[in-house]
């Protein structure tokens, strides 16, 4: 494997789901692209590794729900091109009190966008899902397009598709500095990306560095991005032996509960006999000083009572039998940041800086990975991304306003 040198149309920093999808999209358009990763490919220190993520089209925010149609198509297209199966399809079930404003907004968005859905009362939900026991004033919203995404396998799929389409991939290459104002071989301006294994020129650079994005933005542009990494747990619980009602083949859905706590789960798939149910958010962490210890007390306290009641005693363990710590990168309003990185504090994002950034996915980005790849490729190669409400994802919203601050997240669970 050669040292890092040469010149590329685009250099992508970070080989999680976002960087891998971006490199694939750029390579597919016949442009030269280099994907750099600081650790081994498919490592377990970021946000995209592991067995599963949920995909669903239900969102309380209309703009995310409207983006899901293209995201589903891009997942399908990548599976067709690679021959991999990474999307295990099932319905999505969103449950909560009939008064819950987010759940009501989910229903309103479904109606407005024509997303096929059913709203069930408690009895109807119990008839449909025999293992489920909802409180009296709760409702369940069933939509057709949900499912499990096989997380690490999906990242591997996009990396191999990027490679197949001509991308260059290098791991154990830590980007330390990115500077602009360098001349490329055609005499036009570019950026110099310096790594621990050498330096390379690019016309554009896309930073998709997950929980490290804040550190890189500070280093490159002296910008304080309000993106806070948090230590988020994943937990699996033992289900009653021999019971197959929790499997996707028997129609068990991916689900989200809008109560207190907000929790989510996927059907029993990756570990037979276990069900994944977990909570979002977590305590702030530094991506370079992690303990990798999931907060078992919080999981037990917040989830055990819900699981015992909500699943009619079919969950047999009081503690998770498999638990891991992962990282989510929270933005103050929990919307993504997909933008050009302003290189000085006075020149803001629309100045088409040669450096772009995709971060702040706030615990709900994986399902959008292929679409984020399309958006970042469009922004890098064409300067715009049609059909995407980029105003929700701009850096300017934090640099100009007081909509949020990193400090808001201190000791806060259930932020999503
Ligand atoms: C427990 C958990 C559950 C989740 N559940 C869901 C879900 O159900 N549905 C959903 O849609 N989303 C979910 N998410 C969110 C989703 O997983 C993330 O939004 C997504 O994985 C973020 O990907 P990323 O590529 O931005 O970050 P990462 O995967 O962390 O990738 C960033 C990469 O950049 C590399 N890097 C950083 N700095 C440098 C550098 N200087 N040089 C080179 N490389 C660098 C890092 O090593 C890393 O590999 C969940 C997240 C967690 C943690």
Describe the 3D structure.
This protein is an alpha+beta fold and 416 residues long. It folds into two domains: 7-48 and 153-227 and 331-409, 3-Layer(bba) Sandwich (FAD/NAD(P)-binding domain), CATH 3.50.50.60; 53-149 and 229-330, D-Amino Acid Oxidase, Chain A, domain 2, CATH 3.30.9.10. It has nine helices and 18 strands. Strands 3, 4, 5, 6, 11, 12, 13, 14, 15 and 16 form a ten-stranded mixed β-sheet that branches. Strands 1, 2, 7, 8, 9, 10, 17 and 18 form an eight-stranded mixed β-sheet that branches. A hairpin with a 5-residue loop joins strand 8 (175-183) and strand 9. Helix 1 (17-28) runs parallel beside helix 5 and helix 1 (17-28) crosses helix 8. The two termini are 42 Å apart. Mean pLDDT is 93; it is low at 401-416.
How many domains? 2
The set of bound ligands, ions and cofactors reads: flavin-adenine dinucleotide
Shape: elongated
Q: Percent of residues in helical segments?
A: 25-40%
Radius of gyration: 21 Å
Topology, number of strands: 18
Q: Ends: how far apart?
A: 42 Å
Structural class of the secondary elements? alpha+beta
CATH superfamily of the largest domain: D-Amino Acid Oxidase, subunit A, domain 2
């Amino acid at each position: 494997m050669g040292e890092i040198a040469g010149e590329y149309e685009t250099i992508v920093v970070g080989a999680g789901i976002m960087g891998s999808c971006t490199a694939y999209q750029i390579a597919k358009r016949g442009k030269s692209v280099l994907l750099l990763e600081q650790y081994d490919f498919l490592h377990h220190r970021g946000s995209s590794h592991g067995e599963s993520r949920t995909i669903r089209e239900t969102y309380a925010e209309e703009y995310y729900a409207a983006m899901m149609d293209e995201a589903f198509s891009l997942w399908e297209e990548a599976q067709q091109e690679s021959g991999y199966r990474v999307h295990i399809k099932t319905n999505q079930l969103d449950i909560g009190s009939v008064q819950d404003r987010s759940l009501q907004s989910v229903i309103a968005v479904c109606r407005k966008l024509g997303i096929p859905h059913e709203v069930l009362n408690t009895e109807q939900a119990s008839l449909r899902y025999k293992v489920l026991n909802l409180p009296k004033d709760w409702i369940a919203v069933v939509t057709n397009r949900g499912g499990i995404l096989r997380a690490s396998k999906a990242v591997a799929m996009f990396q191999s598709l990027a490679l197949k389409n001509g991308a260059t991939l290098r791991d154990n290459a830590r980007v330390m500095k990115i500077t602009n104002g360098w001349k490329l071989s055609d005499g036009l301006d570019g950026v110099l990306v310096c790594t621990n294994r050498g330096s390379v020129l690019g016309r554009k650079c896309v930073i998709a560095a997950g929980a490290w994005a804040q550190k890189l933005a500070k280093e490159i542009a002296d910008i304080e991005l309000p993106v806070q990494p948090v230590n988020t747990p994943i937990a699996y619980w033992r289900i009653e032996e021999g019971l197959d009602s929790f499997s996707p083949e028997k129609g068990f859905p991916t689900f989200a509960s809008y109560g207190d706590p907000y929790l989510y789960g996927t059907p029993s798939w990756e570990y037979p006999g276990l069900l994944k149910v977990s909570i979002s958010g977590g305590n702030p962490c530094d991506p370079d000083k992690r303990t990798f210890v999931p907060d078992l007390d919080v999981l037990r306290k917040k989830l055990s009572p819900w699981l015992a009641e909500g699943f009619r005693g079919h969950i047999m363990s009081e503690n998770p039998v498999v638990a891991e710590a992962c990282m989510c990168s929270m933005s103050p309003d929990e919307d993504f940041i997909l933008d050009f990185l302003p290189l000085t504090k006075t020149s803001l994002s629309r100045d088409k800086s040669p450096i772009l950034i995709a971060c702040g996915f706030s615990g709900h980005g994986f399902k959008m990975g292929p679409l984020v790849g399309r958006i970042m490729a469009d922004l890098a190669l064409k300067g715009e991304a049609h059909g995407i409400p980029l105003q929700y994802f701009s850096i300017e919203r934090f640099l100009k306003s007081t909509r949020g601050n990193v400090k808001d997240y201190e000791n806060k669970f259930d932020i999503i």
